[in-house]
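Revision sheet: structure tokens.
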Amino acid sequence: MLERVHTIEARKNHKIKIDVIPGHFATNHSHINYYVDMTSIKTSHKMAKAAAEQLAGNYRNTHIDTIICLEGTQMLGAFLAQSLADSGINNGEDIAVVTPELNTNNQMIFRDNTQKVIWGKNVLLLISSASTGKTINRAIDCLQYYNGKLIAIGAIFSAIKESNGIHVHTIFTGDDIHKYDTYPANACPMCQNGQKVDALVNSFGYSKL
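Predicted:
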């Protein structure tokens, strides 16, 4: 698969990059025709800072109390909180950065010691990739349980433009990847054409089959 890798630069900042691999990949709820590798943005402090500054431009006039980080976006979330706290409507205010825990039923939960930064707070949900919106919906269910107010959604890559009436601000979109598509597992044309699955993928990476 590595011989098929190509790099895409963000349109607004060419220092922000992702790698994409065409093929047939299976997530836990869909099949996709590209694996989008965001490892560099998640692990490089320079690229994470640049990505956070680009995302922050969308929220200068949005009061945010808490950033919830999903799918390994904690470093990006910390830089985003710093950027928002240094300018705009959040100027000078502290912004909490937290990550939910997954219980045995794969539900997102917050322990008693972190619920105080969710309850009644204005929340920005940060996710690495949104292809179908199902992970976002799980997070919204979690926020409703803890009485958090979801007012913004940010992503490194998103194939969807909005979720539950909230615009998804993103650095890379499906338009940046030639003919990117996602399919329900039971209606995947690649499966129907007998094309083998190259790898299983999730927010941590991929495992070749």
